[in-house]
Give the backbone structure.
Amino acid sequence: MRLSNHAARLGAGAVMAIMLATACASPAPSSPPPTVRPTPVVTPDPHLTEPATADQIFVAIRVGDLPLSVNNATSGDPTSPIVKRINAAIGNWPLIITEFRSSAALRQATKWDPTKRPAQGNAPYTFVGLNILVEFGPVTGILAAPDAERQKQAEAVVALIDPLLWPLEQRSVVPLQTKTAVPAAAASPAVSAGSVP
């Protein structure tokens, strides 16, 4: 009997040791810790305010993946409505970025009307936003629908400048998608290759 009492005491001691070890251990979490919400990231507003500069627009286009080259830049005299004109090219097609003193000066000097279709002597793509005029394409020759490569280049230009100059108005041989709706008169007739609107 002595032996069985001793075994019982040893067994009870072992159970007590296990209970003590379990009691000293940290308790299992009852629920997962709360999820910390990420701090909101402020997205900067890319829209420019008037007066925007030709340089700002040129830099925005330069960031794009276009075959851009610069020819020259000219400044207007103090009495001119033009502050600066950058003459560049995208794939040997002229790209002219003109900065006017104000949007009113731009509209008065160019007699800008986005509802009119481009005509002979106009670039196939012309965009106006704030006090900036952007012309893409030659102003001589037959004003026809450009090929697919030129159309893609014009779309790339719009994608780069529209967030800066929004609302962007256009007079295009083939109207391009912008954040601003194309005027109804400009979007209605289709231009076929070789035709003059």
In short: The chain is about 30% helix and 20% strand. The CA atoms of residues 1 and 102 lie 111 Å apart.
